[in-house]
Amino acid sequence: MQHVSWFDARTLLHAEGSLHAAATERVALPSAIGRVLAEPLKSPLPVPHYDSSAMDGYALAGRGPWQLLASQESQPGENVHRKTVPLEAGQATPILTGGLLPPGADAVLRLEHARLSNDGDLAMIEALPHFFERSPHLQPAVGDDIRRAGEELAAGATVLAAGIRLGARHIGSLATLGFDSLPVYTQPTVALAYTGNEIITGGLPGPGEVRDAFSPQFPFIIESFGARVTSTVRLQDSAPNFHHWLDHTAADILMLTGGSSTSDVDWVRRVLTELGATYIFESVAIRPGHPALAALLPDGRLVLGLPGNPLAAHVALYSYLPAVLAGIFGQPLAQLPTGTLTAAVPGYSTKDLRLIPVTIEVTPGGVHLTPQDKTRSHMLTGFASADALALLPPEGAEAEKNCQFLGLPV
Ligand SMILES: Nc1nc2c(c(=O)[nH]1)N[C@H]1C(S)=C(S)[C@@H](COP(=O)(O)OP(=O)(O)OC[C@H]3O[C@@H](n4cnc5c(N)ncnc54)[C@H](O)[C@@H]3O)O[C@H]1N2
Ligand code: MOO
């Protein structure tokens, strides 16, 4: 029986994942959200990539007043941002925010800081002096309201490191740099099987029946970790059903809920043994969630068995799948942050590490973890509003104790 610590379970799975590094593919920008970047990205352009105006107003050359050169006629729908006329000292031309700075221009005067006048046939423009009381000539200084090419980033600068998980905000920034597609790791595939003949999927459960606490959200959680759920089935509890599912399901990771404990009706271990699976671990020294298992089938597919008790299953899902995926994506196993408990947690009867749902509050004084109640293995109401799982010793902990925690990002 390979009974391991929670830390060892994660380290073993991370190491196993590292042996199955994901392949790389290119995907269009919007499809890259949530994917893991496979190569570092360098900016193909300086940012901004051209000198432009930061405001609507007038591009100026030299000191004013300025002769206003009319902008060229434009057609409806035409991109006037590209249209410009070269300026000589003493000349100005209208410009829009983001418009290409004309050759010769050295500042921009905002529309609302300008006064138009006529000098004979010439249209003239001056700066309203009270807006420029701190400038030596009561007018814009060289560079005012100009965005210079490259002031944000030089061309070739690294913008993102390989291995980061791409969020929606990364995509906006990469679009401005001109990327159309990105190199990302392929998503490991996960097949899910839910067991439990007592489980029903809708309506009010009667005595001896239980509403399914996994299928409505497990695929979402798994995909938010960066994997792709390729199939889900509901297995009637039986060895032949499980055997058939393992034999006929193609996925990198086969994840089963329930049927993990050691009683006679639990056939999971029996079938795994029949199929010649090698255990990575058979149980973990934690509460809740000790009957979780991980095994390798002879063809390399990974089987993760999550306990049936709902909180135990969630604890196992958040503890182990991200560890495997980090290995597959070439990422280190995440370091666990620490925080202090705001209340004592009483001791427990076993010698196992406990993972207790907590809410997190961050103050200038530090990270505070408030233990939830209603957190026994079959309970989800405390976990539902928790932000993290605090790692606590079996003997419990006093308030103010510092402890590690595993974040619950989804
Ligand atoms: N004699 C022992 N009994 C149990 C032990 C033990 O060590 N000795 N361990 C207990 C612990 S701890 C856990 S956790 C469970 C693990 O049980 P299984 O993984 O075999 O899961 P089941 O027996 O199928 O179900 C347990 C429990 O969870 C409910 N369940 C299952 N699936 C769902 C679902 N999709 N949604 C909501 N609830 C679900 C199921 O109805 C049972 O109540 O074993 C303990 N027993
Ligand atoms: O360890 Mo069980 O998984 O307490 O619920």
UniProtKB/TrEMBL annotation:
It catalyses: adenylyl-molybdopterin + molybdate = Mo-molybdopterin + AMP + H(+). Residues 191-327 form the MoaB/Mog domain. Pfam families: MoCF_biosynth, MoeA_C, MoeA_N. Gene3D superfamilies: MoaB/Mog-like domain, MoeA, C-terminal, domain IV, Molybdopterin biosynthesis moea protein, domain 2, Molybdopterin biosynthesis moea protein, domain 3. The keyword Cell division does not apply. SUPFAM superfamilies: MoeA N-terminal region -like, Molybdenum cofactor biosynthesis proteins. InterPro entries: MoaB/Mog-like_dom_sf, MoaB/Mog_dom, MoeA-like, MoeA_C_domain_IV, MoeA_C_domain_IV_sf, MoeA_linker/N, MoeA_linker/N_sf. It is an enzyme of class 2 (transferase). Pathway: Cofactor biosynthesis; molybdopterin biosynthesis. Its cofactor is Mg(2+). It comes from the Bacteria. Its EC number is 2.10.1.1. Keywords: Magnesium, Metal-binding, Molybdenum, Molybdenum cofactor biosynthesis, Transferase. Catalyzes the insertion of molybdate into adenylated molybdopterin with the concomitant release of AMP. Belongs to the MoeA family. This is Molybdopterin molybdenumtransferase. It comes from Rothia endophytica.
